[in-house]
From TrEMBL, chain A:
<keyword id="KW-1133">Transmembrane helix</keyword>
<protein>
    <recommendedName>
        <fullName>Ciliary neurotrophic factor receptor subunit alpha</fullName>
    </recommendedName>
</protein>
<dbReference type="InterPro" id="IPR036179">
    <property type="entry name" value="Ig-like_dom_sf"/>
</dbReference>
<keyword id="KW-0677">Repeat</keyword>
<keyword id="KW-0472">Membrane</keyword>
<feature type="transmembrane region" description="Helical">
    <location>
        <begin position="310"/>
        <end position="333"/>
    </location>
</feature>
<keyword id="KW-1015">Disulfide bond</keyword>
<dbReference type="GO" id="GO:0070110">
    <property type="term" value="C:ciliary neurotrophic factor receptor complex"/>
</dbReference>
<keyword id="KW-0732">Signal</keyword>
UniProtKB/TrEMBL annotation, chain B:
<keyword id="KW-0524">Neurogenesis</keyword>
<dbReference type="GO" id="GO:0048680">
    <property type="term" value="P:positive regulation of axon regeneration"/>
</dbReference>
<protein>
    <recommendedName>
        <fullName>Ciliary neurotrophic factor</fullName>
    </recommendedName>
</protein>
<comment type="similarity">
    <text>Belongs to the CNTF family.</text>
</comment>
<comment type="function">
    <text>CNTF is a survival factor for various neuronal cell types. Seems to prevent the degeneration of motor axons after axotomy.</text>
</comment>
<dbReference type="GO" id="GO:0005737">
    <property type="term" value="C:cytoplasm"/>
</dbReference>
<dbReference type="GO" id="GO:0005615">
    <property type="term" value="C:extracellular space"/>
</dbReference>
<dbReference type="GO" id="GO:0005127">
    <property type="term" value="F:ciliary neurotrophic factor receptor binding"/>
</dbReference>
<keyword id="KW-0221">Differentiation</keyword>
């Protein structure tokens, strides 16, 4: 007869050769390789302190006839540790989903059972086809103060474990990041960038459940972000960009009233418009060209750059003219 | 009175809805702050579960997206009229219990009561615009308070404020639905299917 046998890592395993007597002459194989007699106690196979490498197909043959007397598939694994469970609504007010994973592998098959209770009502969490570790629930009620209680139980042949999360309807609302973020220079404006984006496609009704947005941007050469919160609209013009510097820009979204901010969107890069450099022919023209070009290296008046990294966004007042003159001088050198 | 669907009535409705949405947002923000202060001053556990209490309007609703505009307005108005009376009771109890020892909590309660009253009036205006007019308030008001001990009254107050916070969110959503162009008071909008 053939079956699957599950054993815990570190366990001592004894396999009997079917109905053969203890003193019968037998040969055991593991994954096609004969097992040394030192592992036998009579006809019993003894595996001490098993590890994952000992998983496999085991056969027992009668000594002289080589008739197959017993076979088993040994799966060495672990009972499940407490699973990690999270629930989130990225399509409010339609419903929410819960997803889970194990913090450590068990190396053997696991089954998952999830229960969702809202007050006295048990709700059905429909398993997603993909990914398999996720299920979704449709809201039956909105604006409820009653908490949801979700319990996930993971079971395998060696044990079971469970975890429970409890939350309010509003607390788990977290949209997906904005989509199609685009940043473009504005012609003839060396300090502007026009940014636009779209609501996440998973958000079902932005008209009734509007999103607000958080935009962050910085030049690649600096570490500090500047932030702008926008209560409506899906576009914004940055007006204090450093001329000629490449920027990285991201946007996040949040329901206007409830929940938490989305993750940041995919980053986009853009450089503000710059004037085309003129060709140098005469010394006089060089001087004129130089004077015109240095203006692009003046620091924006709303930005303080006296200290490295101490870039402040709109609203800052101090202007470091000394630094500006130094930069202008260096600007000449780099044309 | 202009017909409910006339251009001027539509504009007036959208204007009232916009202002109502802002009012609901401010109200919610103040109620959330009041909740924090109430829990602290009354020595309660913020995560305490409070069973549904008779007379406290429950914001939870099924098939919310299928409601007509008039249903939304009527349910909101009934709720805020009830909250108006409940908050007045809480204010009186708070003054009896704490007196001048916690004037700040009393002022915060009074401020929210004022906003609730203003919002109820706002809803009445919207209902008048629907050529329907608000229902009369005769016989309205919270049921007589059962004899509750001090701790039960505190829990009841917690329940009142929690439901009011939920209602403030719901009201903003209801008004946004009402403000959608092309929707009359009798129409029930439906959510677009998500992809």
């Amino acid at each position: 007869d053939s079956h699957i046998q599950y054993e815990r890592v570190g366990a001592d395993v004894t396999m009997k050769c079917g109905s053969m007597d203890w003193d019968a002459a037998v040969t055991w194989t593991a994954n096609g390789t004969d097992i040394d007699e030192s592992h036998l106690n009579g006809s019993y196979l003894i595996l001490k302190n098993v590890d994952l490498t000992q998983s496999g197909q085991y056969f027992c043959y009668e000594g002289s006839s080589w008739h197959l007397k017993y076979q088993t598939y040994l799966r060495v694994g672990m009972p499940p540790k407490e699973p990690v469970l999270m629930c989130r609504s990225n399509n409010y007010p339609k419903g929410f989903y819960c997803s889970w994973h194990l913090s450590a592998p068990t190396y053997i098959p696991n089954s998952f059972n999830i229960s969702v209770i809202h007050g006295t009502r048990e709700m059905v969490c429909e398993k997603d086809v993909f990914p398999r570790n996720r299920c979704h629930i449709r809201y039956l009620q909105l604006f409820s103060t009653v908490k949801y209680k979700v319990t996930l139980t993971v079971t395998n042949a060696l044990g079971k474990n469970s975890t429970t999360v409890t939350f309010d309807e509003f607390a788990i609302v977290k949209p997906d990041p904005p989509e199609s973020v685009v940043a473009k220079p504005v012609p003839n404006n060396p300090r502007r960038l026009e940014v636009s984006w779209q609501n996440p496609s998973s958000w079902p009704d932005p008209e009734s459940f509007p999103l607000k947005f958080f935009l962050r941007y910085r030049p690649l050469i600096l570490d500090q972000w500047q932030h702008v919160e926008l209560s409506d609209g899906t576009s914004h013009t940055i007006t204090d960009a450093y001329a000629g510097k490449e920027y990285i820009i991201q946007v996040a979204a949040k329901d206007n009233d409830i929940g938490t901010w989305s993750d940041w969107s995919v980053a986009v890069h853009a450089t503000p418009w710059t004037e085309e450099p003129k060709h140098l022919t005469t010394e006089a023209q060089v001087t004129e060209t130089t004077s015109a070009s240095t203006s692009s290296f003046m620091p924006p008046p709303t930005t303080k750059i006296c200290d490295k990294g101490a870039v402040v966004g709109s609203g800052a007042v101090a202007v470091c003219w000394t630094a500006g003159l130094v930069l202008a001088a260096y600007g000449v050198l780099f044309i | 009175m202009a017909a409910a669907d006339s251009p001027s009535a539509t504009l007036r409705r959208r204007d009232l809805c916009s202002r109502g949405i802002r009012l609901a947002g401010k109200m919610r923000s103040d109620v959330v702050d009041l909740l924090d202060a109430y829990v602290e001053r009354q020595g309660l556990d913020a995560s305490a579960s409070v069973a549904a209490v008779e007379g406290v309007p429950v914001a939870a609703v099924e098939c919310w997206d299928e409601q007509t505009g008039t249903q939304r307005l009527l349910e909101n108005l009934a709720a805020y009229r009830a909250f108006r009376a409940l908050l007045a009771q809480m204010l009186e109890e708070q003054r009896e219990q704490l007196g001048e020892a916690d004037a700040a909590l009393g002022r915060a309660l009074a401020a929210v009561l004022l906003q609730v009253s203003a919002f109820a009036y706002h809803l009445e205006e919207l209902l008048r615009l629907e050529s329907r007019g608000p229902p009369s308030e005769e016989g309205a008001g919270p049921p007589p308070l059962p004899h509750l001990g001090l701790f039960e009254r505190k829990l009841r107050g917690l329940g009142v404020l929690r439901e009011l916070a939920q209602w403030a969110v719901r009201s903003a959503r209801d008004l946004r639905q009402l403000a959608k162009p092309g929707l009359g008071s009798g129409s029930a909008p439906s959510l677009a299917e998500s992809p």
